């Protein structure tokens, strides 16, 4: 048993830190720290910065321009980015579609799409959920009917994150309605500029528009955009989900959010003293830190396993549940910490680069919106209820 | 023992319920929230006509209610419809202060408040005061014929539509209250919406001069009156919370009945049934806490304030549970601005930031408990 990083790993961490010091602009990290809504340009700027360094595709093999890092290196890298308040990289192309293409895509598809993900030409979004297919994803109805060298797609996707910026969408579509739900699904790549594709942003209760509805009306898609075999999409989707879950615990996010919370507590006064001197509030913060310390180690235990070549299984469900609960609890405390300034809501003040004046201290504006926004954490990526089902089936054998 | 409301209160509640059903739909809500003052003149004058404002005042002050349960029945209905009109600020809080402390001349204003022609809003809290009503740094300096006020009041709910403000300030005599015209020179309002749709103002008092007649009550009476006003405000907030929680629960139970996944209604999954049962149990607890505090609004201050803190703490905790569980049980749809649930959820959470949050009232309750124990030990 050794709880420490190796000398090489520590050296790598230092390298990441100095890279961030030189390449992450103060403007950008302040936006992230203060919970502003990032613009497309903000995301693109950071994407390009990482790409220049060759540190963008952290889970791709080197031959395709990836870093080739193992799970420990990836973890160190992601944690340092969170702590420095770097924007998160948009995962849809990089860490969701790319692994599927690498494993199941044709050579033509790999050569065509992977370089365009790296250089930022294509922004990808994910077309999975539908209005009637949420937790029960396999019940999806969007139809793709073969017509010569094309599929004709009709239907609707929803909760499509940042779809309003996207050039392409990877979709699960139904190609055979006659067989068992999971066996009639295919994995299709669709150019968002194709006639018949419409995007409608959804305003969420935090006032932001980060998800969308995407409608397909007689959208013609070349059969060359089918990934793998027809009706095998569910297999690819499941494979994709295991990749979605490598950083599922979000330890870095929680650690950064806890640092921010303590900073807020130091500035926020209660009874003439800093809030962290209030034993009631201090106890709440301490409780979360205790939970986070243990979860960080649970996370490292899983990472060490993954680095030793064991594929993550149902354990990732544990990390998802615990990780999201902790993140939500920290958001909750930040909302409490700002007191009555949790109420004002000047939506424009949260927009990237906006000049609109917020109310109260600068850290207050995003406190309640972030609390509400991150209710999504226990809903998306397989709700925490679905994760508990997985644990009881796959681990407990119930 | 009788836990039923009186006939008059039931009638008032029914009248208000019917009125809001007919007049306060999603469109009206959006109109009020979208208005620059965050409320509707039409709704306000209807409230006056229906006697809803009068119900918040005692007969001796020209109303026909003013008890804890009068406030409770009104605000439970307002909560059920996420009504954002500033009745708590103007009707309950400022109304209490005026009734309690006003000179005969000042009390004349109560008639206009009940009639709906005048909105008076308390401007008590400050950027550094958090939830303490006596942590006042605004100053009142004696000048020829009156006082000069300087300071900042923050997140004053109802501020944008207020005709007059009740401002707390510290002067030579101690903590004082002043009735200030909201449009007077030296009173600068910066107004904005809150996350739950209510509107508020930050108010800068910059050499605002008021006549001596603007002083409300004697300095000695101010703090007890602020505590009493807060108690009434907490009754209103707790009742509003109970109404909002009932509505959020009903909306969620209905959704679980109609939403199908994996070939059956969500409501048929035992894991979700149990969570809804917990929600129901906790809302019943909240209703009892509300009854406790409403029933002790006229009790002697230490007993009253123990119930104030108990109710605000318990209901704050339950409100958070209801907010988070009803969103989670809905899934993504519960997070959309278009759907009603989010309005309830946001209101339930923001209430925790008014008149003291869960921790603030836990700390006060602990103080009351320790004082009681010390008294017992002495006797």
From TrEMBL, chain A:
Coiled coil: none annotated. It comes from the Bacteria. The keyword Oxidoreductase applies. Residues 231-396 form the Acyl-CoA dehydrogenase/oxidase C-terminal domain. Residues 7-120 form the Acyl-CoA dehydrogenase/oxidase N-terminal domain. Pfam families: Acyl-CoA_dh_1, Acyl-CoA_dh_M, Acyl-CoA_dh_N. Its cofactor is FAD. Transmembrane segments: none annotated. Keywords: FAD, Flavoprotein, Oxidoreductase. SUPFAM superfamilies: Acyl-CoA dehydrogenase C-terminal domain-like (SSF47203), Acyl-CoA dehydrogenase NM domain-like (SSF56645). InterPro entries: Acyl-CoA_Oxase/DH_mid-dom (IPR006091), Acyl-CoA_Oxase/DH_mid-dom_sf (IPR046373), AcylCo_DH-like_C (IPR036250), AcylCo_DH/oxidase_C (IPR009075), AcylCoA_DH/ox_N (IPR013786), AcylCoA_DH/ox_N_sf (IPR037069), AcylCoA_DH/oxidase_NM_dom_sf (IPR009100), Mycobact_Acyl-CoA_DH (IPR052161). Gene3D superfamilies: Acyl-CoA dehydrogenase/oxidase, N-terminal domain, Butyryl-CoA Dehydrogenase, subunit A, domain 2, Butyryl-CoA Dehydrogenase, subunit A, domain 3. Residues 125-219 form the Acyl-CoA oxidase/dehydrogenase middle domain. Belongs to the acyl-CoA dehydrogenase family. This is Acyl-CoA dehydrogenase. It comes from Pseudovibrio ascidiaceicola.
TrEMBL record, chain B:
The keyword Transport does not apply. Residues 235-356 form the Acyl-CoA dehydrogenase/oxidase C-terminal domain. Keywords: FAD, Flavoprotein, Oxidoreductase. SUPFAM superfamilies: Acyl-CoA dehydrogenase C-terminal domain-like, Acyl-CoA dehydrogenase NM domain-like. Residues 6-107 form the Acyl-CoA dehydrogenase/oxidase N-terminal domain. Coiled coil: none annotated. Residues 124-200 form the Acyl-CoA oxidase/dehydrogenase middle domain. Its cofactor is FAD. Belongs to the acyl-CoA dehydrogenase family. PANTHER family: ACYL-COA DEHYDROGENASE, ACYL-COA DEHYDROGENASE FADE28. This is Acyl-CoA dehydrogenase.
